[in-house]
Amino acid sequence: MNTGFLRVIGRITAVLIVGFWSMFSASLRADKPIEPTIADIPYQLIEQQNHDAGLFTQGMLVLDGWIYESSGRYGQSKLARYKESDSSQLVTQPLSRTIFAEGLAHFNNHFYLLTWRAGKAFVLDEYWSVKKTFSYQGEGWGLTHDGERLIMSDGSDTLQFRDADTFEVLSSIRVTGAGRTWDQLNELEYTDGIVWANRWQTSEIVAIDPQSGRVLGVIDLSALSKKHQQGWYSSDKVANGIAWSSERQAFWVTGKYWNKRYLIKPQIPSLVASEAVDNL
């Protein structure tokens, strides 16, 4: 057979194969759902204040002009409070050396304190006296509330909604978005229909829709974090601590062993804001 003819047939066959594969691949791409992108949420830095660099910050909240924190580590765990306006009048209370303090929330006129691996949650009064103790399975990381239920993280990509009177798990939801893994959810804050979560060992604060678990956007605190990544325990000095200030309409944020806290106002995209309103 003529070799020229064979070369022509070969070229035609190759073109047909390439064309068929291109159409097949396009069909697959058309059928594959497109993951929405995650919005980057910029913020305005309003103010900075001194912060006790000895605090291994776990939970953080604002109440009546005071900032309350839980500080972790075995043998060093404690509760702390200081004025929101200027970090003055620091008051601390050591906790049992057998627990590693974690998330802190204030609900129904009581403080709720998680422990890391002890499987205990403590309910404390305004004087930090233990009034009740709950047991739970797994680890305790972050804690907040939505006005009806406690919301807890355990280091995974799941949020648990718990009854404040019994600490029973009422429901849970997995946090998802953009095909990424959103585990190591840590300190939590709830405001205006959105759960905000630090992700441990990152500089991310994640905005989460508590109805669907979908990530609505991410605040990148790396510009603040890098100021503290030096000296002793530098690997531990990660961003952690989110406290909503109703008076200032902004978040106080800090990190473990940070000597500063920062007041930031997120420039929330309309997509986030509208979805939060829809879910109220």
Overview of this protein structure:
The protein is an alpha+beta fold. The chain is 15% helix and 42% strand. It contains three helices and 21 strands. It has helices at 3-31, 222-225, 270-278, and strands at residues 39-40, 43-50, 57-63, 66-71, 78-83, 91-94, 101-107, 110-115, 120-124, 130-135, 143-145, 150-153, 158-162, 169-174, 185-191, 194-199, 204-208, 215-220, 239-245, 250-255, 260-266. The strands form five sheets. A five-stranded mixed beta sheet has the order 1-18-17-16-15, covered by helices on one side. It is globular and about 45 Å long. Mean pLDDT is 87; it is low at 1-10, 12-33, 270-274 and 276-280.
List the keywords:
280 residues, alpha+beta, 3 helices, 15% helix, globular, disordered N terminus, disordered C terminus
Short overview:
By secondary structure, this protein is α+β, with helices and mostly antiparallel strands. It has helices at 3-31, 222-225, 270-278, and strands at 39-40, 43-50, 57-63, 66-71, 78-83, 91-94, 101-107, 110-115, 120-124, 130-135, 143-145, 150-153, 158-162, 169-174, 185-191, 194-199, 204-208, 215-220, 239-245, 250-255, 260-266.
